[in-house]
Amino acid sequence: MPETESGFTAKNTGLKRFYYASLYSWKGLKAAYAQEPAFRYEVWGSAVLIPVAFVVAQTPMQLAALICTCLLVIAFELVNSAIEAVVDRAGTEFHELAGLAKDLGSAVVMVSLVIGALIWGAVLWENFL
Description:
The protein has about 130 residues and is mainly α. Helices cover about 80% and strands about 0% of the residues. It has helices at about 15-35, 35-55, 60-90, 95-129. About 10% of the residues are buried.
């Protein structure tokens, strides 16, 4: 990137910034899919559940809630994978805080799965029981 008069690197702005941000995001999604089995499971689970949501949901709000729970799990799995990558990069020796960081990242994914199960359960209960 070109430098400005003050010596700082100029950042992309506008559509160019959006374009490069999209490329980096796509690169991250591909890396997560290639390297993280849990991410792959959640993507495939969502690939099944999202079409089912169109059948189960009876209102646009229910549809949005069902789809968002799938995306929420995927998003938190990405955050968990990022935490694990940073902790692993910092060193291979055991450190209590590194373990805590990984455990907390895993807990976030678990909580998002519980949220998803509650919302799916509530919609199924409301619509079919």
